[in-house]
Request: fold
Amino acid sequence: MTTTTAPPLWAGLVDGLAEQGVLSEPWRAAFLAVPREVFIPEVIWRDVGDDLVPLCRCDEPAEWLRRVYGPRYVVTQVDDGCPAGPEGRGRVATSSASRPDIVALMLEAGQVEPGMRVLEIGTGTGYTAALLAERLGAHNVTTIEVDPALAARARAALATAGYGEVTVITGDGAHGYPEGAPFDRVLSTVAAPQVPYSWVAQTRPGGLVVTPWNSAYEPAGLLSLTVGSDGTATGGLVNTTISFMQLRAQRIARPAVADVVRETDIPERSHTDLHAARLCNGDDAPFAIAMEVPGCHREFESAAGDDGRWCVWFLDAGSRSWARFDYQPDADRWPVQQFGPRRLFDEVTAAYRRWDHAGRPVVTRWRFTVTPEGQRVELAPATPATSVHASDAAGFRAGPARVS
Ligand SMILES: C[S@@+](CC[C@H](N)C(=O)[O-])C[C@H]1O[C@@H](n2cnc3c(N)ncnc32)[C@H](O)[C@@H]1O
Reply:
């Protein structure tokens, strides 16, 4: 490893994470030892309106450093390397150095200890692989990146920083790396709505598979699965505040309203006494809805002006179905429109009512099982510890922040 003195901005941030209990001492030391700026490309991307705009270190060195050593994620690639917006602007972040506190959360959730061999999915900049290498020794770390240019850059950065023995594979992380198995941990830094069985098969019994998970309806979080001696893995969400970009082959379509709704559509109209906040707020009801209403994405829209009106769209681009709930203050029934082969509002409210009828199970009661046949998600029996919930605040609240 390269010996560096961490810049004061970074040292302060890392110490702050340690004081909050987010970062244990061994990881704090690794965060301070790994030279973060070696891993961040000269050009990063910042949000400007709906676009991502390049920021070059050569033009704005102080701003570049402030972002690299700051608390937010740093977007390092857009649109799979081919900016899709006008004038070189990007539309969608496709690689990033994740937020430092989220990296810490994932490493801690992985319960990584010296002596272990770890497979990371989603090399990105190589920064997380370097942290793992700092603690475990580079020869114990394998990382896979689907994008050849990113993999090459990460490989070079790892070598520059003194972690050249990390195995960087260019390929689809969904297949894992059977040549290196078994691993003690598979840590994914890219979300897997359906956890690939290869990750389970390549983890030794008793080992962990830790991955961000997300869904079209928006509930998202960090999933931790323990691999059993029967070759299956079980577990659940250990955090519900993070949301990551997905494995390339599992990207969730999040259509804009204009992609699904046409002016010529003639919707069915009705009214509901179920406030849409109940369908959207918190983690518990939305998670149950996400399980039962696949492919449904929601979009909040506030009305122009300040009269307290807003609406929620429920969208499924695949079947070109949509529904719209219109909120008006001081009403106890609200108009609903539905169009297309799916009656999305009916589906969502039916799922909500089943969740309500089941005693409003909290999100941590859902157990994930991954077998060679695929992924199952089921409700575990209630225990006193899992029967408390707090979900139904009035008003609308957006889903988890995108942090990867
Ligand atoms: C949030 S970034 C990972 C950040 C990274 N751990 C770091 O420290 O910079 C997610 C990465 O996963 C990669 N990715 C997406 N799909 C993948 C796949 N199927 N296999 C391997 N990598 C994938 C993306 O190209 C992106 O670089």
User: Anything to note?
Assistant: Residues 387-404 have pLDDT under 50 and may be disordered. Residues 344-357 form the longest helix (14 residues).
